[in-house]
Design a protein that fits this description.
It is found in: Cytoplasm. Its main location: cytoplasm. Heteromultimer composed of HisG and HisZ subunits. This is ATP phosphoribosyltransferase. Helices cover 32% and strands 29% of the residues. With 218 residues, it is an alpha/beta fold. It has two domains: 5-96 and 185-217, Periplasmic binding protein-like II (D-Maltodextrin-Binding Protein, domain 2, 3-Layer(aba) Sandwich), CATH 3.40.190.10; 98-183, D-Maltodextrin-Binding Protein, domain 2, CATH 3.40.190. Strands 2-3-1-4-11-5 form a six-stranded mixed β-sheet, with helices on both faces. Strands 8-7-9-6-10 form a five-stranded mixed β-sheet. The relative contact order is 0.19. The model has no long low-confidence stretch (mean pLDDT 95). The structure holds adenosine-5'-triphosphate and 1-O-pyrophosphono-5-O-phosphono-alpha-D-ribofuranose. Adenosine-5'-triphosphate binds next to helix 2 and helix 3.
Amino acid sequence: MNECLTFAVPKGRILDEALPVMARAGVVPEDAFHDKANRSLTFATTRNDMRLIRVRAFDVATFVAHGAAQMGIVGSDVIEEFDYADLYAPVDLDFGHCHLAVAEPVEGAESIDGASHLRVATKYPNLTRRHFERQGIQAECVKLNGAMEIAPALGLAGRIVDLVSTGTTLRENGLVETSRILDISARLIVNRAALKTDPRVAALVEAFRADAAQREAA
Ligand SMILES: Nc1ncnc2c1ncn2[C@@H]1O[C@H](COP(=O)(O)OP(=O)(O)OP(=O)(O)O)[C@@H](O)[C@H]1O
Ligand SMILES: O=P(O)(O)OC[C@H]1O[C@H](OP(=O)(O)OP(=O)(O)O)[C@H](O)[C@@H]1O
């Protein structure tokens, strides 16, 4: 079993917190990984049977679900949005805490949508539809890739569904949270088939699990 393992990490905000956790599990990228000017997407690690890929957060889940990467780290928001059958999230890494919420302008969503229609700007159309369906409401989703908070002010949608941490972004854009959909943290994810067939994947899951348990006990 000498095939190179591929470990996928997101290039966004959880990367800084992921790196020390990965290091304790024995996943340490080469120095070039930390060079901001480096445009490479694949990096060697201190293990000669493992490489890292650095991709967008949503794509971490896609690479792992399809077995193009065997494992990775991603927020549980991404896992829940895709709901890939071949993706398994065995370890809660207990960082990257935030939540997914519905928010609307202080003066109310009706000022934009009217009383009978419900339009939501979001990066999470599946989670959004599921949330409103649970209340028997059909929501029209407008997919954005960031800066959702600007949508109501421009009349694009009465509501947004987005990640909230401190609440500063909502506040500074004149929005208020109206319901909490999902609590989120970073997770270790693995491809189910790789976990079954490659003992190195199972060993790494155990290393991440042991580290998480030790941090929780501390
Ligand atoms: N404000 C926040 N506080 C804490 N965690 C957050 C916050 N925003 C996002 N996250 C977590 O970090 C993950 C990555 O977010 P971020 O948008 O920075 O990633 P990214 O790789 O730049 O994604 P993309 O390239 O698609 O914009 C999210 O999926 C979420 O789990
Ligand atoms: O509650 P807060 O602490 O203000 O954090 C919430 C913001 O953080 C995330 O955006 P990010 O900064 O990752 O930028 P993005 O809009 O490009 O995704 C999220 O999409 C919110 O906009």
